[in-house]
Amino acid sequence: MKLDGIREKVFLDRYALKDKKGKLIEHKPEEMWKRVAAGIAQNEKPAKRKFWAKKFYGVMDDFKFVPGGRILSGAGTKYQVTYFNCFVIPSPKDSREGIVDSLKQLIEIQSRSGGVGLNLSSLRPRGSRVKKVNGTSSGPVTWAGLFSYATHDVVQQGGTRRGATMLMLWDWHPDIEEFITVKQDLSKINGANLSVCVSDAFMEAVKKDKDWNLVYPDLDDSRYDLKWTGDMDEWRKIKGKVKVYKTVKAKYLWNLICTAAWRSAEPGLHFLERSNKRSNTYYFEKLIATNPCGEQPLGPWAVCNLGAMNLAVYVKKGKFDYENFGLDIKVALRLLDNVIDQTYYFFKENEKCAKEIRRTGLGIMGLGDCLIKMKIRYGSKESMSAIKKIFETLRNNAYEESSDLAKEKGSFPKFNKTKYLKGYHIKNLPEELRKKI
Predict the structure, then answer these.
(1) N or C terminus: which one in the chain shows less Cβ crowding within 10 Å?
(2) Beta bridge partners of 213
(3) Catalytic choice (234, 295, 382, 392)
(4) DSSP structural state of residue 49
């Protein structure tokens, strides 16, 4: 395949294999696909490796399936880099040592080409007493600047690009106003994305024009150092003391978020409570943050194992090829499942989490081009029907292949059939898929 212009530049800079001196070894996508396919197929039984390498190559050919960038750049090489695009690390312990530990984790991940999501709600508000040094805290927004600087100025991934970080704060945190507005000063936190974690209770308060308390654990509570992790629900479950720092109108905060987003394009919003309620992993994992682009909420030490089906490629003479789309989805899912075993792990916690859950993130790209080729106007009723059918095909084939993989290789270790089948999305699957699970 001949690439030109910006497409060629991006491929050669970011994804083509280079030797230790930076000299190009690969010059076209076919060479990359062959390397990736052979590398990922090493997870198969020896007698089947050539078969699956051919299948994996075929699904990537013509960019039908585009694995995550870290898979494309790292798979089949001898470099100790991750194949996962993104990671979520635990919220920092509320201490200088805890914050530096989180910074070390972020730098290690970023240096090996991964992006990082981090929730800073565990850090005490600005102005809080720090008894051991007879001082006051600068608050999570100041520390956010440190993580931003490390991402933007310290780490150069593969020598060609900056890292990516998502920093999040819950809607109840006393420093939420500062967090919402900080990016209106263009000199601050320009190396990380910011998002507010939104609860159902906050949205109800906005809807009903109610007061909203900004709260944090009472630092005099003897359990604080040992038990506080940034999860206010868990803190309240153990009857931890909570201090109200300020009461505002929920609509005031909502308007502040909207105004900031209009002025500086951030912060984003993530309905993290809703994500937890609807997660397939609800019965064993607490989602605490998202990856840098926000598409996947994850628990501590969890990873993004991403890939996208290129919808535009499946339109032939104005018709969508659902049959081959479904077949390719199954091959793509198997490829992503193999990534979990083939990638290099530099934190044992990541390996444990990834292999216990075996999460895959199979999505789409090229929807707009797909609809144009089908001569369907984006946003029309006809487009809604087409999109529904495309995504049903994606969902059904992905879950079907996942079930077949479980039968062949064993279920993921955290699988509990009774609890899994009670999950929000699983309850809404077609009955034949539920039976297969």
Answers:
(1) N
(2) 247
(3) 295
(4) H
| 295 in active site | yes
Catalytic residue list contains 108 = no
CB 143 within 8 A of CB 234: no
pTM over 0.90: yes
Q: In the chain, what are the domains?
A: 5-82+305-436 (no CATH), 86-290 (3.20.70.20)
Catalytic residue flag (residue 397): no
How far apart are alpha carbons 397 and 23 in whole angstroms?
41
CA atoms within 13 A on the CB side of 137: 20
| DSSP helix/strand/coil, 407 | helix
Catalytic residue among 44, 108, 293, 349: 293
As given in the structure block, the two tokens for residue 389 are: 């059918």
Measured CA to CA, the distance from residue 328 to residue 324 in angstroms comes to: 6
Residue with tokens 């309240």: 236
Is pLDDT at 160 greater than 60 in this prediction?
no
In the block, which residue shows the tokens 């991402």? Answer: 151
Measuring CA to CA, how many Å separate 40 from each of 18, 334, 399, 400?
A: 19, 10, 21, 21
What residues pair up with 249 in beta bridges, in sequence order? 211
